[in-house]
Structure formats: C-alpha cells, structure tokens
Specification:
The chain has 132 residues and is an alpha+beta fold. The protein folds into 2 domains: 1-32, no CATH class; 37-118, K homology (KH) domain (GMP Synthetase, Chain A, domain 3). 31% of the residues lie in helices and 27% in strands. It contains 3 helices and 5 strands, in the order E-E-E-H-E-E-H-H. The protein has helices at 38-60, 100-110, 112-118, and strands spanning 6-9, 15-20, 24-29, 69-77, 83-92. A 3-stranded antiparallel sheet has the order 1-2-3, with no helix packed on it. A two-stranded antiparallel sheet has the order 4-5. Helix 1 (38-60) crosses helix 2. The longest helix is centred in the middle third of the chain and has 23 residues, at 38-60. The radius of gyration is 18 Å and the shape is elongated. It comes from Halomicrobium mukohataei.
Length: 132
Amino acid sequence: MADIEVSSTCEEGYTVTNVIDDEWELVVDALSEDGPSPNQVLAADYISCYIPALRVAADQTGYDDLGAVEAEVAADLDDDDDLEAVAFEIEVEADLGDDVEEIVELGEEICHVHSALQDELHAEITLHDDAF
C-alpha cells in the first residue's frame, strides 16, 4: 500500500474530483471555473508545506514560536501555462535578528514540496485504455 492514495474522477470537461486517502475531497479545474487550476493548487500546496517547515526551522534554530505567519504567493506561468517561477513574501511576528537567511534555507530543506520540485519529480504513468 502506498503512503498516499488519490482516486480521481473526470466525468467530462476539465474538472477533476480527487479523493485523498479516502478522506479528503479536492476539486481541481484546468480552466479555473469549478475550482482552482492545477497550478493554483500547486502554489497553495507549496506554501502550505513551507510555512510549517519554516516553523520547524525556526524552532531548530532556537526560536520557540514564530507567532503569526502570513504569506503571499506569486506564481508566473510561461506561454504554455507551465509554472515558471514562484515567489513567497512571508511575514512573521517574531524578531529573528540575523538568523533570517539560515531559517529560510533550513525551511527549504525541510519542506517536502520544495524537495520534490528541486528533484524534478515526475510520475510513472501507466494508461489502461478501453476501461469503461
């Protein structure tokens, strides 16, 4: 059994309903009409992983609590609508002094999404046709 299991259904068009680990439902729409696009989900997923990683990094660097954290994500797409660049603007309540860069870099090392994107992770795909 895999660590994460996702069942996805697309009845028609470009809207996909995903059930994650038989518990969570996520609707993704390539056209952003019935839900966020895959690129929007990826941007949200990235920051949703990075913020907790940043908290762990701060803790490992000697800061017990970052307090409130707010982030804005800007993602750029190329002419083919492929994700080309992502930037985070993050504000934290705590004063981190001279440790900001160290905490940011450690957060990147801890963030699983950052690691997957850096390693250029690609799915192994098996397609079964005439299945219905």
